Automatic annotation (TrEMBL):
It is found in: Nucleus. This is Splicing factor U2AF 35 kDa subunit. A zinc finger (C3H1-type) spans 28-56. It comes from Parascaris univalens. GO terms for biological process: mRNA splicing, via spliceosome.
Amino acid sequence: MDRRMSRGYQQTEDLSGAEYLASIYGTEKDKVNCSFYFKIGACRHGDKCSRTHHRPTFSPTILLQNFYHNPVVDVRQADAFDKVGKKDPEEQKYFDEFYEEVFTELERKYGEIDEMNVCENIGEHMIGNVYVKFVREEDAEKAVKDLQNRW
């Protein structure tokens, strides 16, 4: 047996059951909880996933699922993969206007934003996802409650 493997095995062998489960929670080794959902709040299998999707009870980050619609990339088109990441000036202008409008409105209504990310991944579970991380959890909670009735 490889020394690295035996050392790693020994390390997990020294842990109690609860300690071992805590050490693998949210990782690929966790066979109960979905590591993809844990990391990004989305899973390509959706409700058909064999693993559990835990929605956090509180977080400074909110997810606006499939919120950004790229006018150039349509996932139904055969050349969608070729278009991802290649921006023409018109598409960049559209994105910049979208980003500025959403960032400005959310920050004005709910509180200071630490960062905002827009997914360009064309997997159905991620395309157009917008992740907004507020400085304060309370602001994120307020945004979630208000936006559930809007979008």
